[in-house]
TrEMBL record:
Entries under Pfam families matching the protein: HTH_17
Protein name: Helix-turn-helix domain-containing protein
SUPFAM superfamilies in alphabetical order: Putative DNA-binding domain
Helix-turn-helix domain location: 1-48
Length: 54
């Protein structure tokens, strides 16, 4: 996923992704100088970092 696609998925602005991906540990890779994200890794990160309240 691109930064814009992830921002849409998380309902945040792309700038939020750029500003916070390292500090929050959002799993990412650099591909040709651009950040890329795997949806499966982002979903696992969300499950760890934002558990659903029972």
């Amino acid at each position: 996923m691109t930064v814009n696609e992830l921002a849409d998925y998380l309902a945040v602005k792309p700038a939020w992704i750029y500003n916070n991906h390292r500090a929050l540990g959002i799993p990412s890779r650099k591909v040709g100088g651009s950040l890329r994200f795997r949806l499966s890794e982002v979903d696992r990160w969300l499950d760890r970092e934002c558990p659903v309240a029972a």
